[in-house]
Amino acid sequence: MEGGKLIVFSAPSGSGKTTIVQYLLNQKELNLDFSVSVTSRDARGDEKDGEEYHFISLKDFKVHIKNGDFLEWEEVYRDNFYGTLKTEVERIWALGKHVIFDIDVVGGLRIKKKFPEKTLAVFVKPPSIDELKIRLKKRKTESEERINMRIAKASVELATAPQFDYIIENIDLNTALSEANKLVSSFVLEEKI
Ligand code: 5GP
After folding, report:
1. Is 193 among the domain residues?
2. CATH no. for residue 175?
3. Assigned domain for 87 exists
4. Considering the domain boundaries, does residue 166 fall inside one?
5. Which range among 125-134, 153-162, 175-184 has the greatest average pLDDT?
6. What is d(CA 13, CA 104) in angstroms, rounded to the nearest whole number?
7. Shortest-distance Cα residue to atom 8 of ligand 1
8. Domain limits at 174?
9. Cα 37 to ligand 1 centroid, rounded to whole Å
């Protein structure tokens, strides 16, 4: 696979990485396109198939695994599989754009390992686990049990932060957005690919 660069944003859910990724996608000069993952989880709230994710059955997900269609995949939560199809990255590179990912820490580091030169791996750190809990509860899209599952995973994810190229601490959102913009623009504008 050749082409543009890969920008990975990973973080525990509720850290604000999706907001940061959406903001970067709106900065047209960065020439980014979002890698739409495939997932076996159900759509939440007003999520639409093909926008946030391609929602598929667990059975179809396993067929993709078997066929070697994924660049990376993870069972992020029990029975909830998520993965990046190789064809998704090829589609974006064929448009002459750079790929931006909103994926879990394991998937993010896997991409960095596969394409060390082409990848900028950024970890978004929430101010604290307590703040994370508050943010997840505010979303009102998930049960208490699922929120607790995400919190439990967050501590494990936080421990991987030092393996990323950069850590952005999302204490103040505007500061985090401007930091992300600076980082990504200098990475994509660099001549060397
Ligand atoms: P959510 O269910 O909140 O949309 O996502 C759960 C977690 O899965 C998030 O950390 C999200 O970034 C991650 N995720 C989404 N797509 C992918 C993917 O393709 N691969 C991996 N490894 N993780 C993903």
Report:
1. no
2. 3.40.50.300
3. yes
4. yes
5. 175-184
6. 9
7. 104
8. 6-186
9. 8
